[in-house]
Design a protein that fits this description.
It is a single chain. The protein is elongated. The chain has ten helices and 33 strands. The strands form five sheets. The chain has a 19-stranded parallel β-sheet that branches. It has a domain of 220 residues: Alpha-Beta Complex (Spore Coat Polysaccharide Biosynthesis Protein SpsA, Chain A). The longest helix has 21 residues. Bound molecules: uridine-diphosphate-N-acetylglucosamine and calcium ion. Calcium ion (CA) binds next to loops. The site of calcium ion has 2 residues, from loops.
């Protein structure tokens, strides 16, 4: 079914007690807004409109960051959810098919739920997403009669009997573009808050002889973030679900409760994830790869058969081909490690290309930064980089070459050559004993004074 989506994201989020616009606070390493946009994207919408207000520029940037085709409209003054939706009129009034309104601060609406709402449009002109609230608090109440939704009553405007209703409004609403904007044009602000309530479209629709209905979803989906407490609860809820999904998809998690996924983490079947692993944004782990305990990964790709950690850090642009081994206390950034490369211990590889089956010794550092610019290190195939090699970039080491351990490599090394870049060793027989004798004598002399 053809659909467009409006995401309301103009609110300040006063209760977050923050300089950051609410929808930019992160859950699973992604702004709340991206979660709502991901739900929207599952419908392959015709158009996606984000309504911005507080922190409009930052919010618009985040929206385009997720989807460069996202349309953004500014609601200069926050006069209510109905007024917010009306800002999208110019962009959507002629849109074919359906419009679904989502909230930028409500991250967990599932694609299936939105599909169910679109399907329910066959029976009702307006479809509202509701939930049975454990604690209905100040949510708007859904007043129903049989299959019909009669009205949405805001808590502030509700009578005692209406407040006793536990079926609540999630805020998500669906109608055809035509119907929605026709109804919105008739909303007034004669209510306890003096706001233009989107929720009024239900009664307006009924007055026009149209019907409205409810699709009910689990309360967990409608969890909205208004406070830091709720942000933390949302993070926990996301992780619980992501862990369960990973296990279901055939991923081994040795200690699931200690693994943290990002919104866009992809882990293949038969991958093994050890304890205390944290995924930042943009990570893909292929089938059968292993991430051992205490690793921190973001913006990287780990291929089949590779193993990483324990205690490794893969930063953006780390590309590990098949069967690469990255061991403990190794950091990789913006570097391509071809098949079978081994980087076992205590090493920094940044801004580098490493050819297949090359071995990088312990304590190697690509010195990629000269204080002003970053430079690239190119290491060929089947190279042996001796332990404690400093590779001062830009520098190239040819195929099959070797660097002596402790070398500072400042010049290119041709293929198959050995490069030694360190002071020659000097051995002085007996000197250690003589030195210690002298020192002890000195100490004894001092003690007497
Ligand atoms: C709204 C619903 C209520 C529902 C609740 C669910 C209305 C009138 N009420 O109430 O029935 O139970 O959500 O959480 O719709 N926003 C704008 N511009 C505005 C006003 C709001 O973009 O002018 C955005 C907010 O940033 C937020 C969303 O719309 O993302 C909801 O607004 P909020 O003020 O939180 O509505 P509630 O009073 O919670
Ligand atoms: Ca709210």
């Amino acid at each position: 079914m053809q659909a467009s989506v409006i995401i309301l994201a103009a609110g300040q989020g006063t209760r977050m007690n923050s300089d950051l616009p609410k929808v930019l606070h992160r859950v699973a390493a992604a702004p709340l807004l991206h979660h709502a946009m991901a739900a929207a994207a599952s419908l392959s919408p015709d158009r996606t409109v984000v309504v911005t207000g507080h922190g409009a520029e930052e919010v618009a940037r985040a929206a385009r960051n997720y989807d460069e085709d996202a349309l953004v409209v500014l609601q200069e003054e926050q006069k209510g959810t109905g007024h917010a939706v009306d800002q999208a009129r110019a962009l959507l009034a002629d849109a074919p098919g359906e419009v679904i309104v989502l909230y930028g601060d409500t991250p967990f609406i599932r694609p299936e739920t939105l599909e169910a709402m679109l399907a329910a449009r066959a029976r009702h002109a307006v479809v509202v997403l509701g939930f049975e609230a454990a604690d209905p608090g100040r949510y708007g109440r859904l007043l129903t009669q049989g299959d019909d939704l009669l009205a949405i009553r805001e808590w502030k405007d509700a009578s005692e009997t209406e407040r006793a209703v536990t079926l609540c409004n999630s805020g998500v609403i669906c109608a055809s573009a035509r119907t929605l904007f026709n109804l919105i044009a008739r909303i007034g602000n004669q209510n306890a808050a003096g706001e233009y309530y989107l929720t009024d479209v239900v009664e307006i629709a009924r007055a026009q002889g149209l019907t409205a209905g409810v699709v009910v979803c689990p309360e967990a989906e409608t969890l909205g973030v208004n406070t830091r407490q709720q942000l933390a609860a949302a993070e926990a809820a996301f992780q619980t679900r992501a862990r369960a999904e990973a296990l279901e998809n055939g991923v081994t998690l040795t200690a699931p409760e200690t693994v943290f996924f990002a919104l866009d983490t992809v882990v293949g079947r038969d991958a093994i994830i050890g304890p205390n692993v944290l995924f930042g944004p943009g990570v893909t782990i292929e089938s059968g790869a292993e991430i051992k305990g205490f690793c921190h990964l973001e913006g990287c790709h780990v291929s089949r058969g590779a193993d990483v950690g324990p205690f490794a850090r893969l930063r953006p642009g780390a590309e590990l081909a098949e069967d690469v081994h990255v061991g403990n206390f190794v950091e990789i950034k913006n570097a391509i490690l071809d098949e079978g490369v081994k980087v076992g211990h205590l090493t920094y590889i940044g801004d580098a290309d490493v050819g297949e089956f090359t071995n990088i010794g312990a304590g190697t550092v690509t010195c990629n930064y000269d204080g002003v610019m970053k430079h690239r290190t190119r290491i060929g195939k089947r190279v042996f980089i001796g332990s404690d090699t400093m590779l001062v970039a830009p520098v190239t080491v040819g195929d099959g070459a070797l660097t002596a351990s402790g070398s500072v490599i400042t010049e290119d090394v041709p293929a198959e050559a050995v490069a030694i870049g360190r002071a020659r060793q000097v051995v002085k027989p007996g000197l250690a004993t003589r030195m210690f004798e002298k020192l002890r004598a000195l100490k004894a002399a001092k003690a007497k004074v």
